[in-house]
């Protein structure tokens, strides 16, 4: 396909993806309050003051927070942010398919197979990480609110709470993709299982450091809630890679099957070496002058 046709196809597929996002965004704008309640509900159940909904709380309890929205345009900006984020997430099957349809014709069969496997396992892993973050957030929020000095009131901006919730879900979800990336590198022959196994000490320390930075609170329980599943997934990836390397070695030692073509030695040779080898060879003498089907013995 010429370059102009490629650019035209890319424009059409981008337009379809953006249109799907806009449609879902418009629909989500009518339900943005329900979406906010769903995202922030577990956190508010853990740290929200009993009288903080609809009126200023009169309690002096430091172990709770009052939800606030600052500014005249803040509610509109908040609704727009929530609706757009929902549109991007819920319309992801459409725009991901458009992206795949644009890239797939240029991939080989094995590359398509690996891509299908990555999507098939990557999406459930991302959901598992997001679900873990959704359940860890209340504990994290409770730990942070407990640090509030006595006699002080904690005012929690709603937009900050939403940003924190979304960031935690995305970070946990992407962290769960790391073992799958290691497996893909092993399947393509870039990284061996033995090398991954040699990294286990550094990976444990690195994952723990990443969990400490990714989680907003210094609570060790929250850090371990993120690090422990990734440690387990890492060792699962190592075990799979070792098994895959062992299977490859057995296949190479067994040689090609009856229905497989053997590999050809296509290494170029010097013409002078070929002539020196053929120099000592002589054509067989003809046993007679008779020809069989029009050909002599040498032919």
Automatic annotation (TrEMBL):
Q: What NCBIfam families does the entry give?
A: tatC
Q: Which domain of life is it from?
A: Bacteria
Note the InterPro entries from the entry.
TatC
What spans are recorded as compositionally biased (Acidic residues)? 255-273
Family as reported in the entry's similarity comment: Belongs to the TatC family.
Subunit and partners: The Tat system comprises two distinct complexes: a TatABC complex, containing multiple copies of TatA, TatB and TatC subunits, and a separate TatA complex, containing only TatA subunits. Substrates initially bind to the TatABC complex, which probably triggers association of the separate TatA complex to form the active translocon.
Instruction: From the UniProt entry, list the residue stretches annotated as the region Disordered.
Output: 251-299
Name of the protein this chain belongs to: Sec-independent protein translocase protein TatC
Establish whether keyword Cytoplasm is in the entry: no
Q: Which gene encodes it?
A: tatC
Biological role stated in the UniProt entry? Part of the twin-arginine translocation (Tat) system that transports large folded proteins containing a characteristic twin-arginine motif in their signal peptide across membranes. Together with TatB, TatC is part of a receptor directly interacting with Tat signal peptides.
Which organism does this sequence originate in?
A: Streptomyces anandii
Q: How does it sit in the membrane?
A: Multi-pass membrane protein
Residue intervals passing through the bilayer: 14-32, 78-102, 114-134, 164-187, 199-217, 223-243
Compartments (UniProt record): Cell membrane; Membrane
The keyword Cell membrane is assigned to this record: yes
What UniProt keywords apply to this chain's record, in alphabetical order?
A: Cell membrane, Membrane, Protein transport, Translocation, Transmembrane, Transmembrane helix, Transport
């Amino acid at each position: 396909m010429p370059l102009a046709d490629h650019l035209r196809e890319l424009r059409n597929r981008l337009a379809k993806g953006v249109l799907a996002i806009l449609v879902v965004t418009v629909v989500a704008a009518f339900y943005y309050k329900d979406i906010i309640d769903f995202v922030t509900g577990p956190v508010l159940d853990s740290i929200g003051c009993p009288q903080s909904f609809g009126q200023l709380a009169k309690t002096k309890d430091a172990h709770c927070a009052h939800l606030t929205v600052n500014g005249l345009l803040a509610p509109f900006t908040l609704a727009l942010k929530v609706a757009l984020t929902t549109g991007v997430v819920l319309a992801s099957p459409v725009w991901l398919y458009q992206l795949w349809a644009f890239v797939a014709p240029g991939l080989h069969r094995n590359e398509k197979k690996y891509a299908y496997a990555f999507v098939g396992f990557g999406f459930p892993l991302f959901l598992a990480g997001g679900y873990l973050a959704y359940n860890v957030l209340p504990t994290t929020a409770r730990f942070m609110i407990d640090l509030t000095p006595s006699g002080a009131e904690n005012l929690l901006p709603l937009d900050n709470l939403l940003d924190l919730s979304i960031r935690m879900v995305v970070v946990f979800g992407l962290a769960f993709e790391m073992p799958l990336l290691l497996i893909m590198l092993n399947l393509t022959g870039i990284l061996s299982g033995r090398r991954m196994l040699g990294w286990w000490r550094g990976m444990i320390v690195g994952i723990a450091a990443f969990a400490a930075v990714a989680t907003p609170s210094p609570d060790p329980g929250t850090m371990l809630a993120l690090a422990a599943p990734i440690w387990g997934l890492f060792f699962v990836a190592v075990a799979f890679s070792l098994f895959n390397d062992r299977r490859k070695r057995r296949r190479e030692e067994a040689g090609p099957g009856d229905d497989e073509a053997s590999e050809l030695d296509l290494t170029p040779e010097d013409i002078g070496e070929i002539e020196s080898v053929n120099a000592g060879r002589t054509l067989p003498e003809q046993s007679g002058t008779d020809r069989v089907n029009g050909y002599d013995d040498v032919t």
